Amino acid sequence: MTVTRRTLMLGSAAGAFGGLPPAEAADPYPPPFSTPHAQFTVLDPREEAGHIALRDLEGRRRTLAAYRGKAVLLAFWASWCPPCRRELPILHRLQNQAKSEPFVVVPVSLDRDAGTAAAYIRRLGLDGFSSFIDTGGEVASGPKSKVATPFPLYGMPMSYVIDAKGRSGGYLTGEADWSASDALALLRFYARS
């Protein structure tokens, strides 16, 4: 267990009021994760997201429920987004690493057509990179959209973390090193909840 000021304070308060001793108290909050420009924002209450269907670059549909039992890093990107270009290789490496982890990496392109997204992936040399696409803005949309979508976007790239039960746990706006130890701890936390 990682000891933080929050876990010490919660543990001390629980012990003072007859609750569980600090070593036995489970922290209901995810570990902190931030970048120089943003921090992970927890969504409370968590909203069901398993019913949401995605389309891969070949046109096949898959719902987020297919990943139930694992946490999902749902990462929105586009070929016109410079920070996405820096984050995609990290997601590619993490997608390969995730085969032995309790989470999956599910990138979703917001490009207008699958051909553009596939060509961009090839140009970056991301062989074997698996991505989905949301050409019609049915899954995610920006603040100027007139249509409500399950995943509002406040910037690009933007990532949501879905817990093992298929519920939205939180989001981070902007590029991030999702292979960093604190990011991995966050993804593993949501795999357990």
Map the helices and strands.
Layout: H1 5-16, E1 41-48, E2 53-56, E3 61-63, E4 71-77, H2 82-97, E5 103-109, H3 114-123, E6 132-133, E7 140-141, E8 151-152, E9 158-162, E10 167-173, H4 181-192
Parallel strand pairs: 4-5, 5-6, 7-8
Antiparallel strand pairs: 1-10, 2-3, 2-6, 4-9, 9-10
**What fraction strand?**
15-25%
Mean pLDDT: 88
The helix content, as a percent range, equals 25-40%
So how many helices? 4
Q: Give the overall silhouette.
A: globular
The parts where pLDDT drops under 50 for at least 5 residues are 1-25
Describe the structure.
By secondary structure, the protein is of the alpha/beta class. It is 26% helix and 24% strand. It is built from 4 helices and 10 strands, in the order αββββαβαβββββα. The chain has helices at residues 5-16, 82-97, 114-123, 181-192; strands at 41-48, 53-56, 61-63, 71-77, 103-109, 132-133, 140-141, 151-152, 158-162, 167-173. The strands form 2 sheets. An 8-stranded mixed β-sheet has the order 1-10-9-4-5-6-2-3. A two-stranded parallel ribbon has the order 7-8. The longest helix has 16 residues, at 82-97. The chain starts with a helix and ends with a helix. The model is unreliable at 1-25 (pLDDT under 50).
